[in-house]
Write a structure and sequence with these properties.
The complex is a heterodimer of chains A (608) and B (287). Chain A is rod-shaped. The C terminus of chain A is likely disordered. Among the domains of chain A are: 127 residues, no CATH class; 188 residues, no CATH class. Chain A is built from 26 helices and 9 strands. In chain A, 22% of the residues are buried. In chain A, α14 runs antiparallel to α20, α15 packs across α18 and α16 crosses α17. Chain B is built from 10 helices and no strands. The mean pLDDT of chain B is 90. The termini of chain B are far apart. Chain B has 2 domains: 153 residues, no CATH class; 105 residues, no CATH class. Classes of the chains: A mainly alpha (608), B mainly alpha (287). Chains A and B meet through α1, α2 and α3 of A and α4, α5, α9 and α10 of B.
């Protein structure tokens, strides 16, 4: 043991710990011989020196650090006189570490290649390729093919592996064999976004990471994945999500004029109106579910059918408002359109035209009227059939003949049965139609005919049709009182898409937004009900849009207050309810499993 | 003169420590900058809808290879590749930054697959054994400096042998001088066990004085049965036993300083091999 002074170069043996073998004496806690072991681990020698012959004498060559020249000197035959038993050299620490590493490495290779699974179908043990358990949805169909179900390079020979390392092996190509999407499969949101049109194709595995365990839901991705593209990336819904749009989600008008504020606050509350259907009014005043099917609703909450919720108050109004086709002394709006004469046409001129019409009607009845609709072609006949559906030839002939001879029709009861009638009422003589009820086909045909006439054709006829349409859609005097609810939709709809104007229009399709009312129902404040989120806005100029002769959607004001992000954030926040992107947004459009069944869309219907 | 020399030495020591701290700060600055660059590149790759794990994965592999270079540097002592201390500092900095990079790459602490778990296990073993080694290298050398004298680890068997020979010579001489075999029997019954090889390994490792107490207890118990001549020999034997006890402490501490590498290096070798296997499998199966 050194005490601080450095020994001379020849005072002690030079230790070489990096050498692979050490003298075996050290393992027995004895003094190592100065020669040390050989490079291959053999003992360095049983003699302390190798004497050298000098002239006729043998000289001892024991080094100084081993004790220097011995007093006994070499034996006469030239061998060393200090013989000792040879040792078994021991492995040095470095060599030992290398051996431990090698053994561990060999064990690893054995496990990789042979491993505990001798039935493995590949040269490499499956455990060496196992990247984790598959999700439960994918575990089943890989049972037969194994990894090769998704990884084409699996099971290949050595060359196959080598070549696979230098080519694309994206397993997404396998995904799309079962998963189909509407639009560009590999593009973001299955579309080419206008803002990021240059964005490259996205591999499925970029977002959906398999081999994360059976319980992992592959469709669920981290919010950061969304934030990769979306400009306003954030980590927290309440603080980071952009505020909802100014008129969200009521920016676009519906097809039907239904003033929620007025109905709830006035019609259902005021006995003057509520007496028509008191039980319903009492329920509808406080419960939205009186009119809306909420429990089975997802994002869209459709109203119940007309017959169930509207007819109680409005059916009588519909049946009461007559469609006056012709009068003997006056150019009715319908006659104005049929004869192509403006409402302010010269009376004498109009009288002459009407007289000719009465004459024609007396001869051919409805055929004379049909000819006025547009000629003798098939479309015109079809249109005419709709306009005069149910009008008996005899009724038309009788009215024509009576008015042609300047006589008077017989009086008819004010409560004449629904359908076509000709006779004298308190308003004078007329050939008129009484609607059978809601969605009456004749009134509807007339409205659609007039709406079609307002587009195209010459300016005079267009103006005549527009004037007549205004008269027909007048909510007080128009036939069937259709204009009360359908005026704006009819005026706004394209002539070739009038069908949609009559029906409840679902709100704008938003394929990447998902919301379901059902799970929210139990969370509502019982006192406020649906108004916890859908707050009425009585001050909005809702009626203005529906009353306009040329309704502009941009000017539409809903009778509901815009929804605020804070309403959602009251629950969807850290520590309360999940507020991840995918709770409300979806990534793919029109996902379809090509396995014979389809994923339901937000309305609960299978995707087309 | 002595005061002047001490002052110069102190100044040199202060300068050296300052240089080392500056060097360590520089390594940390470079390391953190490098790590930030990798993290930024991975983030940019993610933003471009590419695989950020590729960036962190190759960076991790490069880090592992850089860490393994320390072993190479030990073998290439002749080449001017910087000081061993600088290499160890770099090893420490890179190794520490490897952990956050690993977490970024793996996306969690524990992966799902068998071989990936083996890879993670190796990573953690290397990391924890590295931390343990660093702590040992900070603590044990200080304790070694408090021991009497210095000794090269490989010479400890020879030193034990020398002390044993000297004690046995003293015992023989004591027996001959006193004409009684009390000392000889005592040596064979107790001290021979002590001098045969290093003893009280764990006690020395944890800083206990159990070895010294054992010596003093046995020597004190024997002393009353010896005459003056034998007591003089016993005093010398006690002195040599206490030196042997110091040697045992050297052996225990230096052994631990070398043995932790038996965990660190083999697991590092496995880690690098598994990392290459991982690289291969990833490229063949999913890239």
């Amino acid at each position: 043991m050194s005490t601080g002074r450095r020994p001379g170069h020849d005072a002690a043996a030079y230790e070489r710990p990096a050498q692979p073998y050490l003298c075996g004496r050290t393992s027995l806690w004895r003094k190592a011989c100065w020669q040390g072991p050989g490079a291959l681990g053999e003992c360095g020698g049983a003699f302390e020196c190798i004497p050298v012959r000098s002239g006729d004498r043998w000289e001892c060559r024991r080094p100084k650090q081993a004790g220097g020249r011995c007093s006994a000197g070499p034996l006469p035959d030239g061998s060393c006189s200090h013989r000792h038993a040879p040792c078994a050299p021991v492995t040095g620490l470095r060599r030992l570490r290398a051996r431990v590493s090698l053994v561990a490495l060999l064990a690893l290779v054995v496990v990789l290649i042979i491993g505990p699974d001798p039935t493995a179908r590949t040269a490499v043990n499956s455990a060496a390729l196992d990247a984790g358990r598959l999700s439960s949805v994918h575990a089943g169909f890989t049972r037969e093919q194994g990894c090769a179900a998704c990884h084409a390079s699996h099971g290949k020979d050595a060359w196959g592996w080598f070549s696979a390392a230098f080519r694309s092996n994206d397993p997404s190509t396998g995904c799309v064999q079962c998963h189909g999407f509407a639009g560009e499969t590999m593009r973001a949101h299955n579309a080419v976004p206008a803002k990021r049109g240059d964005a490259a194709e996205v591999s499925c595995v970029r977002c959906h990471t398999e081999h994360q365990g059976a319980e992992v839901k592959l469709a669920r991705v981290r919010d950061q994945v969304c934030a990769n593209c979306h400009e306003k990336s954030f980590s927290d819904f309440p603080a980071g999500h952009p505020q909802f749009a100014a008129r969200y989600p009521y920016a676009k008008p519906g097809a039907i004029n239904f003033d929620h504020a007025k109905h709830v606050n006035q019609y259902f509350a005021d006995a003057k109106y509520a007496r028509r259907s008191p039980k319903f009014a009492a329920a509808a005043r406080t419960q939205c579910t009186a009119c809306h099917e909420v429990e089975s609703a997802t994002r869209e909450v459709r109203p119940k059918p007309y017959a169930e919720v509207c007819a109680g108050c409005h059916e009588a109004q519909i049946q009461k408002a007559r469609l006056v086709l012709l009068e003997p002394e006056r150019l009715t709006p319908a006659a104005s359109v049929l004869l192509g004469m403006p409402k302010d046409a010269d009376e004498a001129d109009a009288g002459k035209r009407l007289a000719k019409l009465w004459d024609a009607m007396s001869r051919s009845g409805t055929e004379a009227l049909g000819e006025l609709v547009g000629g003798r072609d098939a479309d015109a006949r079809k249109r005419a059939a709709g306009l005069f559906d149910g009008l008996a030839v005899a009724t038309a002939q009788s009215a024509g003949a009576t008015w042609s001879s300047r006589k008077t029709l017989r009086p008819v009861d004010e409560d004449a049965p629904a359908g076509w009638n000709a006779g004298e009422t308190s308003d004078g003589q007329a050939l008129f139609y009484r609607p059978r009820g809601h969605a009456d086909p004749v009134v509807r045909a007339w409205l659609e005919y007039l709406r079609t006439g307002t587009k195209g054709g010459d300016e005079l006829r267009t103006q005549i049709a527009a004037d007549a349409l205004d008269q027909f859609l007048d909510k007080d005097t128009g036939p069937g009182a259709c204009g009360t609810c359908h005026a704006a939709a009819l005026r706004g709809a394209a002539p070739d898409k009038l069908e949609s104007a009559w029906k409840y229009a679902a709100s704008e399709t938003r394929p990447f937004i998902r919301y379901s009312h059902a799970p929210h129902l139990e969370l509502l404040d019982p006192a406020a009900g649906c108004r916890s989120c859908h707050e009425l806005n009585a001050s909005a100029r809702y009626a203005k849009y529906h009353a306009a002769s040329n309704p502009k959607p941009a000017a539409y004001e809903s009778n509901f207050a815009s929804m605020k992000k804070q309403t959602c954030a009251a629950c969807h926040r850290e520590g309360y309810v999940d507020s991840a992107c995918q709770v409300c947004h979806s990534y793919h459009a029109g996902h379809e499993l090509k396995l014979g069944f389809r994923q339901k869309d937000s309305k609960g219907a299978p995707n087309k | 003169m002595t005061i002047l020399r001490a002052s110069v030495l102190r100044n040199r020591l202060v300068l050296r420590i300052g240089r080392e701290w500056a060097q360590l700060a520089l390594f940390w600055a470079i390391g953190i900058a490098g790590w930030l660059l990798v993290a930024l590149a991975a983030w940019r790759a993610e933003r471009s809808l590419r695989e950020g794990a590729l960036v962190t994965g190759y960076a991790l592999l490069a880090m592992m290879l850089a860490l393994a270079m320390v072993n190479l540097k030990k073998r290439l002592v002749a080449l001017p590749l910087g000081t061993a201390r600088a290499w160890m500092m770099a090893h420490l900095v890179i190794g520490t930054l490897g952990f956050p990079l690993y977490l970024q790459h793996a996306g969690g602490l524990w992966p799902g697959g068998h071989y990936e778990r083996a890879l993670a296990l190796c990573f953690y073993t290397v990391m924890l054994s590295g931390i343990a080694g660093y702590v040992l290298q900070r603590l044990l050398p200080r304790r070694l400096t408090h021991l009497e004298g210095e000794v090269i680890y490989e010479r400890i068997p020879s030193e034990v042998f020398t002390l044993r020979e000297r004690v046995e010579a003293l015992v023989l001489k004591g027996v001959q001088d006193a004409g009684a075999d009390t000392l000889g029997r005592y040596y064979l019954e107790s001290l021979h066990w002590f001098f045969r090889r290093p003893r009280f390994f764990l006690s020395h490792l944890f800083g206990s004085a159990r070895g010294a107490r054992w010596i003093r207890g046995h020597v004190g118990a024997l002393r009353r049965y010896l005459n003056e001549t034998e007591r003089a020999a016993l005093d010398q034997i006690e002195s040599l036993a206490l030196r042997k006890n110091q040697l045992d402490a050297h052996y225990a501490l230096q052994s631990v300083l070398k043995l932790w590498l038996f965990v660190h290096i083999p697991s590092a070798v496995l880690l690098i091999v598994l990392a290459f296997w991982h690289l291969l499998v990833v490229n063949i199966y999913s890239r």
